[in-house]
């Protein structure tokens, strides 16, 4: 119903826009009241022995709706006859009105066909006014019921909750902008908001603080669940004792379900150390359960630890704030130094530490607000205080997340920006990675890797050259080795390589040549002439235009053995013989 506009006249004009926003706020309040009233009436009808009238049920529904906004109720029907305050707000019940106000304010700024969108300030004012008008009518109606609202609590925090939810809706509709600050703000703040780096840091701090609060609440809920399973029998007895019929048990179950977020906040306060109060004379902490608790019969309260000093099992609850501190560190470094980022692109030490510290402050502030909302009085005297002390819980959350989050963020940043192993002067990058370097070849025995040094077989063996080459060089030399000519007949056949003047074996390899040495599996010492030995080998860059070839290299070709081919112009002949 809040997502679609109500039916107005066809002539929608600018004066009708504020009225439409006002109507949106009123509809949101009516939906909240109606949903709670339907639930209360359904439970009242299903009760087999109800001693109240439908009017009393509607008055109770009005009181519950005001309680969901944070208002303090006055319960007139007590055993002593004295009115007793009820200020413990079920947080799950409070989600409904907050979400409705937020949605109404956000939808009022969405332009629709035929109607211009109002200004942000006008939409905010009209939505809040329409909602508060309905709230005033409901408070006046529930004044004479069994649960009437304290007038002072209607202004704070009930009206403040409505204003905050509407402001959040307007901000969301505007795209969640950051700035500009007001004109009276310092110039430094204007300059900081104008920089994109500031916006990035602010977003990181907000997300990190929200993640820390979420981990605290999740850890508190886990503690409560474990305690309920540990004390399953007392919790079941308390549940059965409160209601004998199924309608009453459904009511108790729904009330316990609405208080589950409160129990999660209480569990987080217990893990942080300050704990929570069970009346004015009792406090529950991991170190001890002291005093005389004023425990009303309720299933969630049956999960309390045993009275007396805490044990190792109770102390293990401190794992919750440790997890929150680790979360703050992780979420900070996830933006400060993402995996694989260069050192110059990462945040500095100061920026990382400041972001983690500000996130810890935000986590402490959020935890304090939730602790203040999760507690409250349930009566007078011994029942005047129930729940965690908000400022102690906030300070403990700040201390845990700051002491663990800031050093953890710096250590994680240093780990992600660690330098890889740099090779020393005597090793290469391949050796640093674990690949051994091939043994160096002496300069006096080095040969060109691009082509083997050819020497005639008749040259004296006074200057042998031992050429142990690498496998790649030997492969290239074998592929480029010059062909040899058969020593019988004086003529070459077409399947033979073009050879040297000296003879070779049937395989085409010159005895003592490099190819022969490779085929034998060992390097061979080749004789070389004095001129060839004294002649320097040109480096690869100084080679001719055709790389990887000897100076004496000549292209060869495969000639067919057809009779019509004649001998070539070369003296030794390159074609087949005449009788082939």
């Amino acid at each position: 119903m809040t997502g679609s506009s109500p039916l107005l006249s066809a002539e929608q004009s600018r004066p009708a826009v504020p009225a439409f926003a006002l109507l949106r706020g009123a509809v949101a309040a009516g939906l909240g009241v109606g949903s709670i009233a339907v639930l209360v009436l359904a439970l009242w009808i299903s009760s087999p022995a109800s001693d109240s009238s439908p009017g009393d049920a509607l008055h109770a529904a009005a009181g519950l709706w005001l309680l969901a906004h944070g208002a303090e109720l006055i319960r007139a029907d007590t055993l002593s006859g004295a009115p007793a305050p009820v200020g413990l707000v079920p947080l799950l019940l409070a989600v409904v009105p907050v979400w409705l106000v937020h949605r109404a304010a956000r939808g009022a700024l969405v332009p629709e066909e035929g109607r211009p969108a109002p200004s942000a300030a006008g939409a905010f004012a009209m939505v809040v006014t329409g909602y508060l008008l309905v709230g005033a009518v409901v408070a006046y109606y529930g004044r004479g019921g069994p649960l009437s609202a304290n007038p002072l609590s209607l202004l704070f925090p009930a009206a403040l909750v409505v204003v905050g939810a509407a402001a959040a809706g307007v901000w969301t509709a505007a795209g969640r902008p950051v700035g500009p600050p007001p004109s009276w703000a310092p110039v430094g703040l204007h300059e900081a908001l104008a920089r994109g780096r500031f916006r990035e840091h602010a977003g990181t701090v907000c997300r990190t603080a929200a993640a820390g609060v979420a981990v605290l609440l999740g850890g508190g809920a886990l503690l409560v669940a474990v305690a309920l399973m540990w004390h399953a029998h007392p919790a079941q007895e308390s549940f059965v004792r409160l209601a004998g019929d199924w309608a009453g048990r459904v009511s108790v179950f729904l009330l316990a379900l609405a208080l589950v977020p409160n129990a999660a906040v209480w569990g987080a306060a217990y893990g942080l150390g300050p704990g929570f109060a069970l009346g004015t004379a009792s406090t529950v902490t991991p170190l001890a359960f002291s005093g005389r608790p004023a425990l009303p019969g309720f299933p969630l309260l049956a999960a309390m630890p045993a009275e007396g000093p805490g044990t190792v099992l109770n102390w293990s609850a401190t794992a919750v704030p440790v997890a929150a501190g680790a979360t703050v560190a992780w979420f900070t470094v996830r933006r400060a130094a993402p995996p694989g980022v260069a050192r110059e692109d990462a945040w500095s030490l100061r920026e990382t530490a400041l972001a983690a510290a500000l996130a810890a402050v935000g986590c402490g502030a959020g935890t304090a607000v939730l602790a203040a909302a999760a507690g409250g009085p349930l009566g007078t005297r011994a029942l005047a205080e129930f729940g965690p002390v908000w400022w102690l819980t906030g300070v403990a959350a700040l201390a845990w997340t700051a002491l663990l989050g800031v050093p953890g963020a710096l250590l994680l940043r240093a780990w992600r920006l660690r330098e890889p192993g740099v090779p020393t002067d005597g090793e290469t990058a391949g050796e640093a990675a674990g690949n051994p370097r091939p043994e160096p070849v002496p300069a006096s025995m080095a040969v060109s890797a691009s082509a083997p040094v050819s020497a005639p077989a008749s040259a004296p063996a006074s200057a042998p050259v031992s050429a142990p080459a690498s496998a790649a060089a030997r492969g290239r030399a074998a592929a480029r080795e010059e062909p040899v000519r058969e020593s019988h007949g004086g003529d070459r056949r077409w399947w033979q390589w073009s050879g040297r003047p000296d003879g070779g074996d049937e395989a085409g390899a010159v005895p003592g040549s490099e190819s022969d040495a490779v085929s034998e599996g060992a390097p061979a010492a080749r004789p070389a002439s004095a001129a060839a030995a004294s002649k320097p080998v040109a480096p690869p860059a100084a080679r001719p235009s055709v790389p990887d070839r000897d100076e004496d290299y000549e292209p060869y070709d495969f000639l067919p053995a057809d009779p019509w081919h004649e001998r070539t112009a070369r003296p030794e002949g390159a074609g087949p013989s005449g009788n082939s």
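Strands lie at 73-75, 84-86, 147-149, 276-278, 282-284, 288-291, 308-309, 386-387, 465-466, 525-526. The CA atoms of residues 33 and 305 lie 38 Å apart.
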